[in-house]
């Protein structure tokens, strides 16, 4: 029976008896068909487009054994307060079985301001306040930095924060060669300096790590904030990979070899709620990236072409009136990420949409990953959805549209030029606005657990808040003036800024002081207005 015959003789009578219900409350990147058949994937060549696990283009995963020998890294995070408060949470989570740590910083830190600067507000809120080597030592007190991988989610002051981390490890007697983790930078939000100097800074970090910190991933590009801001899954994937392309191209122009860059590059994606779309997005990310690294940059090794993926579940999908339902969302999002073959995973606590997560909620987020890894049989078969007509079609569609979007960004001069023109920002803002408008006008049911369906008198979850007290540290100003002057000279000329950031950190410089030197030399990033027409499209 052909598709047309099935629709006429089987589907039409069924719909006549029972009309279709309203769609789910999500915004997929492409229209969803009711049925997928072998005809829909007839153009996919297994060896060329999918291949076996561990084989180019790594659609089914970079590891031939999947999770059998190496489960994904569980990366809980402490998201509020002082370094001392966050350290207590880290130690508790590691004792509960976490295998890695993520650091989320407060707003002043992300913007390169010290906690005693006149401008910052919200010190220690929605992230950790870290300004000095002393803070970094407090943050990781009692934690073996040579054994626990650490991811720091920070964009503008990432090199300065890395310098603090390296000097803290040095003072703890931990060799830099033993350190592992990543500097996770957002695609464009969080920029402090103009885009081109920012690219220079990250290339300097990449060059430095190649020689001194070989196990560290200095190029970790995160598209999670795009999805949280309202972007479609397709926009998230396309713009994230375009940004990673810009990072690799800039590093090659600076003299690095692509086969040295590829193994230390990673990408962070969001698991947002459309189960099959999230699985396919992860598979397509590996496929597209492998082709880009080989065909565009001439990567010669599989290690350089196999993309490392980190995934974070979606805080934007959470509801505030019945936060316990967010635990279910997180579990399903985590399951999709695992089935998509992620290498590391952060699961949000169900109540962190309200404020500082409670210890019970943070533990449950970790237990969610442990149940998936140990009790659900997910570490057996590699890529169990491989061969599903539906998932293979979604994967192909993601890959095709991403390659088209990369071409469109190239025509604008690359991702740096596109960001300077405000093109991707406008596109994300446009689709976020349309999505909100469509939901307001939709006749579909409300989101589960939102105020519309909350039972009268439902008890609210109480969350802890941090007042940010205690984040101010005494500084050692010895040799500070000379170190900051050298930083100023390096910024205005040539040389690797990482060497100077480390000198500044050793001299007791704080993040804000180093950033102020660069602001004076380079100015600040000014985002183009998020309106008007754009020349590239990722929908």
Summarize the structure.
This protein is an alpha/beta fold and 539 residues long. It contains 20 helices and nine strands. It has a nine-stranded parallel sheet with strand order 1-9-8-7-6-5-4-3-2.
Features:
single chain, 539 residues, alpha/beta, TIM Barrel, nine-stranded parallel sheet, 9 strands
Q: What is the secondary structure topology, with strand pairs?
A:
Elements: H1 3-17, H2 46-50, E1 73-74, E2 77-78, H3 83-95, E3 101-104, H4 107-110, H5 133-139, E4 150-153, H6 158-171, E5 181-186, H7 195-212, E6 216-222, H8 224-228, H9 233-253, H10 258-261, E7 265-271, H11 275-296, H12 302-305, E8 308-313, H13 326-339, E9 344-346, H14 359-375, H15 389-411, H16 415-421, H17 423-441, H18 480-492, H19 497-506, H20 511-522
Parallel strand pairs: 1-9, 2-3, 3-4, 4-5, 5-6, 6-7, 7-8, 8-9
Helix pairs in contact: 3-5, 5-6, 6-19, 7-9, 9-11, 9-15, 11-13, 11-15, 13-14, 18-19, 18-20
